[in-house]
Here is the input.
Amino acid sequence: MLALAPPQLPLPFRAMPKPALIIEDDPDIAESVRYNLESEGFSAIVASTGEQGLRLALDTQNPPAVIVLDLMLPGMNGMDLCRRLRRENQTRRTPIIMLTAKTSETDRIAGLDLGADDYIAKPFSVRELMARVRAVLRRVEDEAAERYEDGRLIIDFADVRVACNGANVKLTNKEFQLLSALAKKRGRLITRKQLLGQVWGYSYYGDARTLDVHIRRLRQKLGGCGDCIETVVGVGYRFVGSAAEMSTAANADD
Here is the structure.
């Protein structure tokens, strides 16, 4: 009898590379980023204008898992494109890393306020860019989870419950929304404007110090887990977790 070869998996069942979209008008930079993304296992597509980038980003047949976006583009610039992408349901949560020669604090804050997930200044290290791409994709996966746990702090997003060191923590609805908004974007800087919009609504025009007061009360109620929220002075806040092995705490009041 002839020995039968083991069946081969059909193509649809083989792991498919994640699509990445590079929107960059400098061909040398675009090629370098494309090469390195493909070396990381992505299938990379390059757009040299904002309009072309918008069309590719909204391609329902091949939606990008991550977008690397230059700000200084011909036609529609990167800021306008980022704003448009965040308005579209398909790309509302797609990670966007801004890659630009604009390095002022005002430009960085403006980019983050528009919804960018990260901001890298030119000239840049390709290895650092790849690390940040992996980091934003991990954060997207973390945000999809219904529960956060780090050994001390537990946040159950589905059941609206919080516990620190085994003890339940009673929070108001706004405090839980604020903690959830931060925890679901663990490790990512969220500006004050973004937090006010997510928790109080984008039509909120009250005193921004309301946010600081709620952060302070939230830290107090979390007690030994209050170090999970880090203050980035003059910009916003970052959720850093409250693992027992952390050697430094970020429990600085405003």
Q: What stands out?
A: The radius of gyration is 21 Å. The longest strand covers residues 18-23. The helical segments are 27-39, 50-57, 78-87, 105-114, 126-143, 173-183, 192-200, 209-222.
